[in-house]
Amino acid sequence: MYLSIFKSYLFLKEALNLPEEPHTILPIIEYSMFQCLPHQILSRSYNVGFDMLAAFPYLLHFVLPALFIAYNVVTRKGCGVPLIYQYLWCVGWVNIISVLIQFLFPTAPPWFNDSAVYDEITGEVISSMPNEAAFQRIDAMLGIPWFKKFIRAIPLKYGSFPSLHVAWPTVIFVHQPWFSTKVGLLHVVWITWAALYSSHHYLIDALGGISVVVAVKLGMNHVWEPFSKHKKPKVSPRTTKSLKLACVHEAYQCI
């Protein structure tokens, strides 16, 4: 369902008259919260090593669900199947909610807000940095427009908030992350840094993505989700006390 909505953005935009002009309020909100723009601080110290380190989790993003499912199938065998269903249910709702927010409230990413030049009379955008932002340096280094092709192929240009790049690893983190909790947390921190360093997202976008995951997971835990494990029946305090007395009596007889 998420893929259908996402791929149909151009059609839905025309059919439903969705807003096209991006809101540029994110840096104002972020500065009021942190008294700085973290992405600008991180993007100043750029070099080839940092560029490659930031590019890897972005490339991994597109196959992340398949990799996590394969990891559970291989390492957790049959025990991983219920977890896979719960993961897919969670990531599905996270994607749908996030994309609906991006459709109804399109927001410009840092690379656009930091580089856009407007016509003084009409207010229209004359020029701006390419969509691939900092990753254009990798394309230039390799001599292949790799990032340019797949980033510009994304139909939703202004979908900075919330960040699905950060949300997907967070969904994995709340569903028994691969290898260990520390590795899962490191993945979330890594992609957050990469999103800010490459000027694709604000810190508030990352926090927004994490918030959507937390909200969906709380809904799964306290409201309903169809793949929950069978819970043990609750035992009343009176029953528990009776069982304890029976155990003590049996132990006394054995003596």
Task: Describe the structure in your own words.
The chain is mainly alpha-helical and about 260 residues long. The chain is built from 14 helices and two strands. A two-stranded antiparallel ribbon has the order 1-2. β1 and β2 form a beta hairpin. α4 packs across α12, α7 (about 80-105) packs antiparallel against α11 and α11 crosses α13 (about 205-220). The N and C termini lie far apart (about 65 Å). The relative contact order is 0.15.
Core attributes:
255 residues; mainly alpha; two-stranded antiparallel sheet
What can be said about this structure in brief?
The protein is mainly alpha-helical. The chain is 65% helix and 2% strand.
Written as H for each helix and E for each strand, in order along the chain, the element string is: HHHHHHHHEEHHHHHH
Query: Share of helix among residues?
Result: 55-70%
- Radius of gyration using CA atoms only: 24 Å
Low-confidence stretches: 230-235, 243-255
DSSP summary, beta strand count: 2
Beta percentage is under 5%
Distance between the amino and carboxyl termini? 65 Å
Structural class: mainly alpha
What overall form do the CA principal axes indicate? globular
Summed over residues and divided by their number, the pLDDT gives a mean of 83
Biggest sheet record: 2 strands, antiparallel
Number of discrete helical segments: 14
Walk across the major sheet and give the strand order. 1-2
